[in-house]
């Protein structure tokens, strides 16, 4: 029993150390950018040893990868919480777009996922992470719309990529202080045209 308790405590300590490293890296990368953030700063802010950093992550890029996964999962959870599969295609897309804009408005998130992540990990790896953590929702939404008669003879995967890029650009603008209501209105018009509403 005592041995089991000590193992659990060690696992909790490992989780706390990993979380402290991710939190410190997030703060520094949001504030200074990935290139200007050094691992000694991360270790100091996390109040752990360099050995602890390399026990949890191969290198700074691996730490960034974990941070991108963490942020992407948070975005996906917010979208899932705010969308309903029983809605019309337009309403489902708008609910998803609004949830995405809200999730990406979390301080620093747009910088991590739309600027620093692609620069560090590359577009292909970011796309793979996006697919793993819920990025397929746009494709699912397009398939839902196609099931309702939209997009005849239109390849859905390229359309999903284009729509995703538009949402990303809007999210970046909103995160940088642009008028969210204007972007939501423009998004609705775009979707109405696409869906022939």
What is the fold's blueprint, element by element?
Blueprint: H1 2-32, H2 39-46, H3 50-56, H4 60-82, H5 89-104, H6 109-121, H7 123-132, H8 137-147, H9 156-175, H10 180-195
Summarize this, please?
The protein has 197 residues and is mainly alpha-helical. The protein folds into two domains: 1-57, Homeodomain-like (Arc Repressor Mutant, subunit A), CATH 1.10.10; 60-195, Tetracycline Repressor, domain 2, CATH 1.10.357.10. Helices cover 79% and strands 0% of the residues.
Structure description:
This protein has helices at residues 2-32, 39-46, 50-56, 60-82, 89-104, 109-121, 123-132, 137-147, 156-175, 180-195. With 197 residues, the chain is mainly α. It folds into two domains: 1-57, Orthogonal Bundle (Arc Repressor Mutant, subunit A); 60-195, Tetracycline Repressor, domain 2, CATH 1.10.357.
CATH class category of the largest domain? Mainly Alpha
User: Termini separation (Å)?
Assistant: 64 Å
Please indicate the count of domains. Answer: 2
Shape: elongated
* CATH topology grouping of the largest domain: Tetracycline Repressor, domain 2
- Topology order in helix (H) and strand (E) letters: HHHHHHHHHH
Low-confidence stretches: none
Helical coverage, percent range: over 70%
Q: What profile does the largest beta sheet have?
A: none
Overall pLDDT level: 90
β-strand percent reads under 5%
Brief descriptors of the model:
197 residues, Tetracycline Repressor, domain 2, Arc Repressor Mutant, subunit A, mainly alpha, 10 helices
């Amino acid at each position: 029993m005592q041995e089991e308790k000590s193992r659990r405590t060690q696992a909790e300590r490992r989780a706390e150390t990993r979380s402290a490293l991710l939190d410190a890296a997030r703060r520094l990368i949001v504030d200074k950018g990935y290139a200007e953030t050094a691992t000694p700063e991360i270790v100091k802010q996390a109040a752990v040893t360099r050995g602890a950093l390399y026990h949890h992550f191969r290198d700074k890029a691996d730490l960034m990868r974990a941070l991108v996964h963490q942020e992407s999962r948070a975005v996906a959870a917010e979208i899932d919480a705010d969308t309903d599969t029983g809605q019309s295609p337009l309403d489902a897309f708008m609910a998803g777009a609004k949830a995405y804009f809200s999730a990406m408005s979390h301080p620093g998130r747009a910088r991590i996922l739309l600027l620093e992540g692609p620069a560090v990990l590359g577009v292909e790896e970011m796309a793979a992470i996006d697919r793993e953590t819920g990025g397929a929702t746009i494709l699912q939404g397009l398939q839902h719309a196609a099931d309702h008669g939209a997009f005849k003879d239109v390849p859905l995967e390229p359309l999903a990529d284009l729509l995703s890029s538009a949402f990303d650009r809007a999210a970046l603008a909103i995160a940088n202080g642009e008028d969210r209501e204007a972007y939501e209105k423009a998004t609705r018009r775009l979707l109405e045209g696409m869906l022939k509403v």
